[in-house]
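If your schedule permits, I should be very grateful for your opinion on a structural question. I have a record of one protein: its chain in single-letter code and its fold written as discrete structure tokens. Would you kindly read the sequence against the tokens and tell me how you understand this chain to fold? Thank you for your consideration; the sequence and its tokens are set out here.


***
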Amino acid sequence: MTKKQLDESVNYLKSKGFDAPEIGIVLGTGLGQLVDHIEEPIIAHYNHIPFFPLATVEFHTGKLIYGTISGKKVVVMQGRFHLYEGYDFSDVTYPIRVMHQLGIQKLFVSNAAGAINLSFHKGDIMLIEDHINLQGGSPLAFKNVSEFGDRFVDMMEPYDVPMRKKIEQIADRNDIRLQKGVYASVVGPQLETKAEYRMLKILGADAVGMSTVPEVIVANHLKLPVVAVSVLTDECDPDNLEPVDIQEIIAIAGQTEPKMIQLFTELIKSL
């Protein structure tokens, strides 16, 4: 990744009309309905944006959408990138750097995740308070990282506290059951074994997924306040484990998404 590549991506999007968005949003697996709330959308397909990776997962559509939600200019990633698709950390986080260059001042991230904490249930939403990086690398571990920001980034509080408090207040007002916890990020794409679920619980994880952490690390590198939520689509009880049905996971994500949309749209309104 070079600054020249970033500039080319950003200039292309500006030429399409992506003008000074305030908020960037990353939509997770099965969580695409938020785009229906974007007013006057302008769409850029990933395969048209210079140096952008391509979404290879069938339920990730691969579009960057610019428009207005709750009176604020937003840019939304409909379809994200994962290490399990064969991409590296630089590819996975490239769109975050592009959105930052476009001008976003806040980043919202969503994902579908499995509940490790057995008091959480499928269909719950978990506000991420902290994370455990089990992906075996870092999006900041490249030679010229200091051209883009500090090499050593403090991660004491990676998720913005004021935005987290606002999400909690919005959930209270709207009777949305909001769990809070620690998200562990693994490579995937295989699901975890019973022993791995036990290990994650011992490590202090409340939920597990295959995304989010690289984007959050880069947001912190860019000093970009970030908030993230997990839609919990399955329960990972190693003593009562059943085979995972990916279609059921997508269906639960879709059923729970309206609550996530309400949290995000009201948060946008409050900023």
Q: What stands out?
A: The chain has six helices and nine strands. The two ends are 32 Å apart (CA to CA).
